[in-house]
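Exercise 3.2. Students should predict the tertiary structure of the chain below and write it as structure tokens, then compare their answer with the key that follows.

Predict this chain's 3D structure.
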Amino acid sequence: MSIKDRNEHALVVNQVSKRFCRTSAVRGISFSIKPGVCFGLLGANGVGKTTTFKMIVGDIAMTRGSIHVKGFSIKSNPTAARKEMGYCPQHDTLFDFCTGRQTLNIFLLLRGTPRNLLRKASEKLASDYGFLCTWTTRSRITVAALSES
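Answer key:
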């Protein structure tokens, strides 16, 4: 893939492979996604869908190949690459024992937000998505309790 191709596509996965010991989980997968496209991977159990997504978001290292998100390499510049993507994991990742504020702060930290900006960033997100009033009046309620109501 050329530099031009990497910059014109939101995501470029090029000849990516992943091995776990002697087991090949992903073998030479290549695809690209245009900007603004929401996508998923379909296939039978055990064919490498989850492993592929984990490599794309940088949760696990690839054995071979390259992944670029808006031109940023997930290998050499993972922080910049992660700032350009949204990811909905396979399983619910909200922690039942955390409040909404705590959960949001965890994810902000995971995505590289400096600690001194957590309050401002989390309140802006709460305001932008219309739950700031709930945020302040129900700040001690856990995510599990909110999802039940």
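Discussion points: Strands lie at 11-20, 23-33, 64-69, 72-73. The helical segments are 3-8, 49-56, 78-82, 100-110, 118-128, 132-137, 143-148.
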